[in-house]
Each structure stands twice: as C-alpha cells, then as structure tokens.
Specification:
Layout (H helix, E strand, L loop, with lengths): L3 H17 L2 E6 L5 H15 L3 E6 L1 H10 L4 H4 L7 E6 L4 H14 L5 E7 L2 E4 H8 L4 H40 L1
Antiparallel strand pairs: 1-3, 1-4, 2-3, 4-5
Helix pairs in contact: 1-3, 5-6
Function: Forms part of the ribosomal stalk, playing a central role in the interaction of the ribosome with GTP-bound translation factors.
Family: Belongs to the universal ribosomal protein uL10 family.
InterPro entries: Ribosomal_uL10 (IPR001790), Ribosomal_uL10-like_sf (IPR043141), Ribosomal_uL10_bac (IPR022973), Ribosomal_uL10_bac_type (IPR047865)
Length: about 180
C-alpha cells in the first residue's frame, strides 16, 4: 500500500518529468515477467545511465499529476488504460531511446508495448513512436553530415593523387624502356 507521502513523491516525479524530459513514453508492460522487466531496466541503465528513468505508476496518480501540470487530460486518456509504466528521458537523444525501446520490444515479441508519449513537447501515439524509432539518431545524422562534407575533399585528394600516380607510372615505364 502506498502512503500519502510516497504518492505525493511519485506525482511530483511525474510532474517534473512532464516539465523537464524531452521524451516521455507510456508503456504497457502486460505480459512482462519480473526477470524480463529487470532486464529491460538494466539495459536502459547500461545504455543511458540515470538520464532515463522507468517507473510503474497507477493511472490515477498519473491523472492527478497531469491535472497539477495544467495539461489536458483528454490528450493523455488513450495512454492511461491498463497497466502503465512511464519512461522519461532527459539529456539524451530521444530518438536513440525510442530506437532502443523498439529494438528491445521487437526482440521480446512486442513486450513492452509503447502506448504513446510526448516527444519534445508534442504528443505522439504508438504509430508515430514506431515511425520516429526508424529515424536516424543525432550521432548518425552527424556522421552523414561529416561524410557529405568530407566527400568532395576526399574526391579532390584522390584526383590529385591519381595524376601523381599516373606520372610515376609513366616515369617507371620510361625507365624500364632504357
């Protein structure tokens, strides 16, 4: 049984997450046994440290926290049915977290299931979450940018090196003929 103080703490944690987190996912953990849930938590911690928090909440506590944060309950209603866990992420790339959860879910036959969430202040449903999980992360985008900037320089170096290489081949051919 949760005490009043513990309930207040949980509500305040979620209100803080609503204000500060760049990603909040509402997750249905139905069908996850304790070892699988523990594995999920540990892999989250190993990949993202304390920047990603995964907690199980009562829907009534979440509704109270949403009221306190002055957000519309109607927008969150579809996510607050059945067992609900909340994953909140701050100071990390939200797409990377979505990719991780999607990959874990796919490897475990759809467990846990993303009901929806909030990404950078925008409410997303489960379909949008899965679409965003397919996008490249910030690190992947940076790598693409560096490759696209580096490619013309690489091409110029190869073109210049090719001319020098051809000159050496010609000089070696002349030397072999003499």
């Amino acid at each position: 049984m949760l005490t009043k103080e513990l309930k207040k703490g949980l509500i305040q944690d979620f209100v803080d997450a609503l204000e500060k987190a760049n990603l909040i996912l509402f997750i249905d953990f139905t069908g996850m046994n304790v070892p699988l849930s523990h594995q999920f938590r540990m892999e989250l911690y190993n990949n993202f440290g304390e920047d990603v928090i995964y907690k199980v909440y009562r829907n009534s506590l979440l509704k109270t926290a949403i009221k306190l944060s002055k957000k519309s309950e109607d927008e969150f209603e579809p996510f607050l049915t059945g067992p609900t866990a909340v994953l909140s992420a701050k100071n990390v790339d939200p797409i990377e977290v979505l990719k991780f959860v999607k990959k874990f879910s796919d490897s475990q036959k759809g467990l846990p299931f993303i009901k929806g969430g909030i990404l950078e202040g925008q409410i997303i449903d489960s379909e949008k979450a899965n679409e965003y999980a397919k996008l490249p992360s910030k690190q992947e985008l940076y790598a693409m940018l560096v490759r696209s900037v580096n490619y013309p320089i690489f091409g110029l170096v190869n073109a210049l090196a090719g001319n020098i290489r051809n000159l050496i081949y010609v000089l070696n051919a002349i030397k072999d003929n003499k």
